[in-house]
UniProtKB/TrEMBL annotation:
Residues 26-188 form the Major facilitator superfamily (MFS) profile domain. This is MFS transporter. It is found in: Membrane. Its main location: membrane. The chain crosses the membrane at residues 24-44, 64-84, 91-110. It holds the Pfam family MFS_1. Keywords: Membrane, Transmembrane, Transmembrane helix. PANTHER family: HEXURONATE TRANSPORTER, SOLUTE CARRIER FAMILY 17. It is a multi-pass membrane protein.
Length: 188
């Protein structure tokens, strides 16, 4: 029995243990979630010329729609950390990811400035949980000496998402329509 315990202790203490490798898988998942987060928020901007033409939005209309996201994102940050601390990173991140995914896809269901503003507001609330959850996940899974590296890796997803959106979204919109672009990116 002590060989089993000694082996388990050695595995956990080893820098190449399963737990050590698993935390890098978690970091990769954080990177992909952050990438998707930024793709979802960029879809509206990429599709703006199409949507402005289809709905006849003024610059003010587009500004209201865009500001709805920013307002909700700022408000959401005030509560996201508290919520994630209260329920834990696994459940908290899951809730926020679900909210932002549904909100992103639901843009396909609306046809008005008010509808797009509501979806952008919901998207902002959902996406506000990404960074508090990701930072806390890094703190839970990584030793202090690796936290900056892990944070840099997952945060690179924000720029990758901003690069991917203008490459993928126009193709989706031209092939299947702008509504499909919101659904595919929202449910990705």
């Amino acid at each position: 029995m002590s060989r089993l315990v000694d082996g388990a202790v050695a595995a956990v203490a080893s820098p190449h243990s399963v737990i050590s490798r698993y935390r890098w898988v978690i970091c990769a998942l954080l990177f992909f979630a952050t990438t998707i987060n930024y793709v979802d928020r960029a879809v509206l901007g990429v599709l703006a010329p199409t949507l402005v033409a289809e709905f006849g939005w003024s610059e003010r209309d587009y500004g209201v729609i865009s500001a709805s996201f920013t307002l909700a994102y700022a408000i959401g940050f005030l509560f996201a950390g508290w919520f994630i601390d209260r329920v834990g990173t696994r459940l908290g991140y899951g809730v926020y990811l679900t909210v932002w995914s549904i909100a992103a896809a639901a843009h396909a269901l609306v046809n008005s400035v008010a509808g797009f503003s509501m979806m952008r507001f919901a998207l902002g609330l959902g996406e506000s949980g990404n960074f508090p959850a990701a930072v806390k996940t890094v703190a839970e899974w990584f030793p202090k000496r690796e936290r900056a590296l892990a944070t840099g890796i997952f945060n690179a997803g924000s720029n990758i998402g901003a690069i991917v959106a203008p490459l993928v979204v126009p193709w989706l919109a031209l092939t299947w329509g702008w509504r499909t672009a919101f659904v595919v990116t929202g449910l990705a």
